[in-house]
Amino acid sequence: MKTIREAQINDLPQIVSIYNESIPGRLSTADLEPQTVEDKTDWFLSFAKDQRPFWVCEDAEGNIMGWLCFKSFYGRCAYRGTVEVSTYISYKYHRMGVSQTLLEYAIAQCPNWGIGHITAFVFSQNLASIKLFQKFGFEKWGHLPGIAKLGDDRCDLEIWGVGL
Q1: Could you say which DSSP state residue 91 is in?
Q2: Cα–Cα distance for residue pair 72/35, rounded to 1 Å
Q3: Other CB atoms closer than 10 Å to residue 9's CB: what's the count?
């Protein structure tokens, strides 16, 4: 059983741990070094539950399986109804539908905040994320070739989006 709830500051160690799991794989973040709770505290506190929410998905025992957050797309008033989505799932919960559950929930909540468009920035080699977003009607809106340097490799970044 999966439960989605609003993230709390005391969840931050688990949120950071899940995020750090993704760094070595070079598929879902441009960070190259592990982050600390201190590194991420101001970032976490910037989310507002009534405008730019942050949710965690827990298993039946209350363990955080993964998380999803919305952040402002561009920071100008005209883009207020557009968000960027990020989702990270602990490796031990991969292929269990956690991202799908979180994204379905988040999309359903969008009318509560006047969100009409969701964007996702995805490395082109991250096929699992691309398939997930396609399942929810996202289309490729942009392609930035070689924009990220992850170690010795240059990676393309794709912008995926959906209008609700």
Answers
A1: G
A2: 22
A3: 11
Model confidence at 50: pLDDT above 80? no
- Distance of alpha carbon 69 from the chain centroid: 5
Q: Which residue has the tokens 């109804």?
A: 81
Distances in Å between the alpha carbon of 78 and those of 19, 47, 74, 115? 30, 19, 9, 12
Match domain 3-115 to its CATH number in 3.40.50.2000, 3.40.50.150, 3.40.630.30, 3.40.50.300. Answer: 3.40.630.30
Query: For residue 4, what are the CA distances in angstroms to 58, 62, 84, 110?
Result: 6, 10, 19, 15
pLDDT for the residue 9: 97
CA dihedral 15, 19, 20, 21 (to 10 degrees): 110
Q: Taking Cα atoms as reference points, which of 93, 94, 48, 101 lies closest to residue 70?
A: 48
Mean pLDDT for 49-63 is: 92
Q: Are 119 and 85 in contact (CB under 8 A)?
A: yes
pLDDT band at 81 (very low <50, low <70, confident <90, very high): very high
d(CA 156, CA 18): 23
